[in-house]
Write a structure and sequence with these properties.
This protein folds into two domains: about 30 residues; about 90 residues, Immunoglobulin-like, CATH 2.60.40.790. About 15% of the residues lie in helices and about 30% in strands. The termini are far apart.
Length: about 150
Amino acid sequence: MARREIEELYWVAGDLATLAGELAIRRPRLASSREWEPRVDLIEEAHRFLLKAELAGVRSEDLSLQYNPENHAVVLRGTRLDGFEDLDPTGVHQLEISAGEFSRSIRLPDASIDPSGIRAQFRNGMLFVMVPKMSRVKVTRTLALNPF
């Protein structure tokens, strides 16, 4: 399958997941009581993985980031407040922005990584995580030809 076709399949799968999530949040329920998942991009480069998570409205003090070696996954947890905690509404006419607690586990592709080198930056509602791969030292070896 050509690279372009694979990319198109990923886009379609992403669009379907987004649609499913949007349909699920249209059901009447309290914004503060539902769990949601942030959108995430995971890109691989030769020497690292780059993860980007969309976390608009989440404060850095309400966010935790861990690496789980058992699942080879980066785990995001936190809370987004909806800003309506002190209101006493007489009705809700539209409720599209998810709020409340979230937890998202992003499994990394099979590759040896350096957990001590993981770095994260949180700015403008976006979380950027850099996960370095273990460097492999290329050594040329001369082998002796011995009989078995």
